[in-house]
Each structure stands twice: as C-alpha cells, then as structure tokens.
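DEPOSITED CHAIN:
***
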Amino acid sequence: MMNKIDSRNKVDDLYQLFNEGLSLNIIENLIEAGVRYHEVPELLVSGSVHSKISLRQTTINKIIEAFNAVENNKGSVSYYQLFNFANNYISTLSYNQSITIVQLRDILSRKFLVPIGDNLNRIIADLQKARKIKFTSIGIKKYVFSLMEYLKEDFDNKELILERLQGKNFQQLADHFGYSRQGAFNVVKRVMAKMPVFEEEYRFSKLFDEYDVEETLFCKLFDEAPIVYHFMINKFNRQSKSILEGFYHLNFNEKQKEYLLQHFNCFISSSGDILEYSRINVFNEVLKKCHYEKMRNEDMLESYNDFLVKNNFPESLKADINSIRGIAERSNIVIRCRRNYFRYYDFQVVDRHMLTRLHDLLMLERGVYSTKKLFNENPDLMAELDIRTEYELHNLLKRYIHPPQVRYTRMPEFIMGKITKKEFILEIFNELAPIEFSEFLEYAEENFGLRKDSLASYITSEFSKYIHNDYIKIDYQLLSKDKLQELKTNLSEPIYTVEQFKSIGLKVDKHFNMYVNNMNLTHLGYTLRSNYVLSNEYSSVEEYFRANILSQDYFVYEDLPIYKNQSYTSAISKLEKSFDIIKVEKDMYITSKKLGEAGISQGNIMEFREKLIELVQHNEFFTLKRVRDLGFEHFIEDFGFDNIFYERMIARFEGISTIRLGAGYVFKLTEEQISLSDFLYNRVAAHGKLNLYDLLDELKNKYGLNIETHKIISSIQQVEVFYSEELQRFYLDADDYYEEVFS
C-alpha cells in the first residue's frame, strides 16, 4: 500500500495527507466527493463539504492536523492556520473593541513571519461569511448575536420563552403550557442558560446589574423593544439603586441625560449634584452663585426668578416675596446679617475643633454682651470661619452653641447668667457713677461690645432719672477711711480686672461689691476703665498695655483675665500694624526694642516690603515658601526666625491682602478682600482641570501648604468650579468633565 501511495505522492495530491497519519478511508471519501487538495482550507473554514459528503468534527480535526503538518513540511503556512489564528484573535476582543484591517494584517505577519498577500481579503470574507466579524467605522470587531436575531431562529421551548419575554409571569406560563409554576421557571432558566451572550447583555449588563430601571424609561432611553427589557430582568436580579445614581457612571449621551433629568424632575447644580426641582433647591443654587454678596429677600426674589427663566425651569417653581422669606428661614446654607440681609455660608467649615473654639468664646462673666466684642477680639478665628460681622457670629453661635447660662436675644446681643438687661445696666451704674454719659457708652462698648447708639436710646428711655446734665449719677456707698487705707495696702499692681479687684476688696469688707465705684477708687489712686481698675498713672488701659509690652524684649501672652479684653486685642493689633512688635511664636512677640538691638530698624522692614513687591506680580497669590523659591532674599531672613515672624510681618504690609489658614498664610498684592475659595479657584483656573491629589501636591510643593481635603473641596465648591467625586478632579468648565467622561 505504501508503494501505491508513494507513486501518487505529487504536489497538491490528497494522498500527501496519508504521510501525516490521515487514514486512506478518509482520503478516498474526500476524493469520491470531488474534494481536491487545494480545496481543503475551504472545507476546514466552513466545517463541512458540499452535499456529497458530511463529516463529523473529529474527522475534520484529523484532516486539519494532517493538512497543517504537510504544509509545515513544505515550509509554508496553510490558509487554515491564518484563518484560525485571525478568528481566535478577534474572539478575544472586548465587545466595543475594533481593529483596522491593516492592524490584523500586521498581527498575522508578525505571528507567522510570512507575507499575507491576497489571503487577507479571503480571511476577511470568510470571517464575515461565518458571522465571526462585523464592520465598523474604523475597521472590524467581533460579531455578537443580538437577541432579536437569535429569536428569529428555532430553539427548544421557543414559544414559552417568547411569552416570558413579553411579560407573562410564571403562573401564566404554567397554566398555558401545562407545567407547574416551578416547572415553568425551570424551563426558562434552562433555556436561557444555553443561549449565547447577546449584544444587549454587553450593552446593558452594568445597568441591570447595579440599578433599578422601569420598562418605559428603559425603552425610551435606549430606543429598545420591551422584549429586550424583559430578557434583561430575567438575566439579572432586580436592584434597588435608582438609575439616577448612575447618571455619571453610565455612558449616557446628552439627549439621554436630558430625558433622565426630565423624567425624575431634576436638574444639575453648579457643583454637579443632581437635585430635585424644588424652590429650596433652586434658592440654594442661586445663593451659592452669589456667595460673595449679601442679599435681601427682594434681591433674592429677582435673582431667583431670573434664574428660572434663564435655565428654562418649570413655571411652577416661580416664587413671590413671601415664599422667598420662608425659604430663606429654612435654608441650611443661609447665614443672617444685619437688617434682614443674608448670604451663602458653608457650615461644613465648622468642625468639632471650631465648635470647641466657639464654645470657649462664651466663657464670660455674668452680663449683657454683643457678639461685636467676640468678633473684634478674635480676628484670626473670624477669618478662618469666614465670619464677616458680629451679626453673622450671633447667627452662628445661636445655631451651634447652647450652654445653659447663655440666652440669645435680639441680634447681636446675648445674656450670660441669670440677669435682665435692666438689672445689668443698674449694676454698671452703681460701679461707675458718677460718669459722663458718653464715657459710660464708651465703657459699655469697650467691655461688652454694646453699640453706643442703641444703648444710648435704651438708657434714655429706661433710666432717664439717673441722667443729669449728660452725667449718670446714682446714690453710692463710701468706704470708711480705715477700710480704704487697708485696701490700699493690698493693691500692688497698676491694673486689675474688676473681678480681681472685688476679690481683694472682699477680704476687707464682705459687702465690698456695693462699694465698687469711682468715688472710692479716686481715694485709692485708681479709676474704673472698661472692665479694669487702672492706676491713675495711665490715661487708658491701652496705654498701659502698650507701655508694658514695649518695656520688654519679648512679650509673652499668658492666659490671664487682664488679657481677655478688647483693649488688649486693640493694643496688640496697633503695635503689630506699626511693627513695634512682631509675632515669633504662638504666644510670643519680639519688640522693636529688641529688634533694634539686633540691627533691624523700621526702615529695614520697609525695605523688605519694597523688595517683596518688586518680586511678586500684581494679583498673584504667593506664600513665604513661594517667594523664597523665586529667589527672594533679604538680610532679615538671615536671623532665622520661624516662618510665623515673616508671615505676620508680610500680613501687616499695606497693599497686601491675607488669607489666614491653620496651614500658613497666603498673600496677594491687592487691596481687595481675598478668601481660600479665591486662591483655590486661581489654581484650578491655571490648569483648566486639575486632579485633587495633583492640587494637594501643588499646594504642598509650590506653596508649602497642607490643607485638609474636605476643606479644599468645600471651599472650592463655593465658586464656579465643578468637582467630580468619582474622578476626584476639578473642572473650570463642567462641559470639560462631560466631554472627558463620555468621549
């Protein structure tokens, strides 16, 4: 037999396959069917021969193996090998992945190290004929059956499946087809498990695997038949998460997004949040856009209704002055100002640490106060909180801080302890009288923050009998000469708080509080000044503080009662502004006396300012680190003070505005007020779009600032910047976000 075959072993002869193990029986069946050697690749590609012969897959596999071996022995690559590799490669592509014809040619060439030539067109044609590929705008992708294509073909239990996909429940199927309910369920489950993965599954699996979607909405959004919807809900368990939560996660086009918002009666806020149409949501959106402005109800009404028209919002949301007034009362981002003004406020900045600091502000003696006192005495805290007036502070305290001893009355006043305003004023009369009416008003404003004009009206109305020729006069008690002398021997300091003074006096007379008045103090060489008892050596409390501070090389603030007053705060502020003192540590100041001894004069400080201004461009934000990196040098820097020294000095320069942060100071060469929001907006605007962590790196590496993430996000959302939580990226224009996500 071998001799017989060898004699026929010619090029393109089927008997060549015998030498590679294919049986003569198969070879002769092929010959009898009219198959020639060069036709074998077509046989292998199609998986069958013309009507004269039918082969099992095991036989086809044997022919494939023998044919490839013969071609390899000849040093050539069979068409089938090329086709099979191309088919397998394309099957590994993802559903949406396409490749060009040229890319496929190059892949085959690199794999087999032979020129592909005309085989490429034939491979493409055979793959298309076998429904392995489909053409796209850029090339080819793997062919995936659609559900609708599949349903046109025959398969087991087709009628039952079709009725299930038309919305029939299992009991209806059971009744119709003669199954139990469980039996109908099992049939559907078994048949669907055998189905291939359809194009619709690739497209909608994420939607149905994560979100709940109604039939009508699905069909409208994707222009699909209800049968596709029912197929998907049979494949996936029903979810509870609204499809609206997938607004930014699913690849909706603009038309779909518009329909979704309309369907759920929602709109997108400037910060990217999806909000339900309601008056309060529109109110808050308008308020955020006007966050720098304080507004009245009338201003908001105009801006509110203009916003509705501009954005084509439903007419039903239109408001009148009464509804605006009510919404403003309910809004959780409104902070109240004076005379019915209000503005946007981000209450998220008031964290636990800030609440503790606010609570500490109310550690006060019994009395009637205005938040003006707290506002003026704590400028750094007010700047950190972005609280701009005593009225806003009153509003903030009333919202968060409620110690039992505090009663909030008409803005900006509040009462400490069990006392009425009338009782309090009479107590102060007893301490200060006789005193000029104007001087009393100064005292009340200095110590309790009470506004002079409103207090004058109140006293004139309620206590007119005590006012004589612009003096407040009252019957007072005098100490005996012996007790005055005894008290005088116990007074050794030039200044005391009233409470300290009373404590000393109670050792002399157990009823001493009734003797605390200026008539007795005059005999002691002291005067009541603000909340202090001050030696007559000084004309004012501020003069005392100034003299005391400047007499030292370094002044260290201590947590003592005498420093807890606006007079101290005012003295420190004025001394810093004139560069008579500069802060070197948290509670320590170096005085001009010591600076002068070290060789640093006021003139040198002004030179520092001029050199700094020469380096920094107008309207550019900068920090101490930033200017040093830009090459700033001055001999004052050679003294090696901590950064706070140089930052506090720069903060006091005229023409430079400051943002005080826990992380450090940010400056800008401008007369305008600036905020952290302005600074962060500037950094995003410089890039157009900026990743959160890139921004954090820039703040640290370029400006030397470590700002908490939540504070950055909260502050930057107060301006026209869009933030994507999913991408953790800021966009100057929200359209850039949509283009990036959906391109």
